[in-house]
Fold this protein.
Amino acid sequence: MPLLALIVLCAALGGVASAAFAVVFLWLPERIAVRVLPHFVSFATGALLGAALLALLPEALAGAGVAGAHAVGATLLAGLGVFFVIEKLVLWWHVGDYAAHDHGTHDHGAARDHASGVLVLVGDSLHNALDGVLIAAAFMTDRTLGLVSTLAVAAHEIPHRVGDFAVLVHGGFTRARALALNLATGLAAVVGALAAWYGLRRTLGLLPYALAFAAAGFLYIAVAGLIPGLHRRADARTSAVQVILVALGIAVIAVAERLAGH
C-alpha cells in the first residue's frame, strides 16, 4: 500500500474508528461499562508511555544523531509546554463559558450543558488534528513506528470518546447526532496527517524533532491526563490491576518494536 494511503487509513482509524468503537460502551449495561472502561484507560496509559519512550524518542535521537540530541531534548520540553498551554486554553475557555452563563437559575443549565458539548467538539477537532500529525510523522520515519503510534492513539482515544459522547448527549444532542459529530471530529486526524505529509516531506531534516514533539504529546496525555484519574481509586486490588494493565500496554509496544527489529 502506498505510504500516503496507509497514513490516511491509520489516521482515520485513530480518529474515526475509535469514536465508533467507543459508542459500543454506551449500549452496554452500565454496571459492565463502568467496570470495563477503566481497564482501557490503564492499558492506554502503558501504550502511550511505551510509544513515547520505547519507540518515538529513541527514533528521534537516532535520526538526530549525537549532535542533535540536545535539540531533541529541547523539542521534547517545548512539546510538553505546548500541550500544557493547549490544555490550559481549553480549560479557560470552558470555565469562562460556564461563568458567562451561570446566573444562578435553572434556565441556563441546558445552555451550559450545550456549550460544554460544543467545546468538546472544538477541543476534539484540535486534538485529533494533532494526533494525525503525530501518526504521519511516525510513518514517515518507519512503517512499524507508524503502526505503533496508531495503536497508542487508538488506545487512549476510545475511553476519551466515551466521555465526549456522554457530554454531547447530556448537552441535548440526540445519540445519532452526537455519534455523527463525534465521527466528524475524527476526520480532523486525517486533515492533520495530510498537512504533516505535505509539510514534512519538504523538510525531512525536521522529522526527528517532529517525533520528539509526538513523544511529548504522548507523555503529556499519559502523565497529566490519564495517570491522575487512575489514582482516584487506590484500593489494593484495583491498584494491582492497574499496574498489570499499564505494564501490558508497555509490553505490547515493546514487543512490536522488537518484532520490527528496532
In short: Helices lie at 3-26, 30-64, 69-101, 109-141, 143-170, 175-200, 207-230, 236-259. Confidence is low (pLDDT under 50) at residues 103-114. Residues 3-259 form one domain.
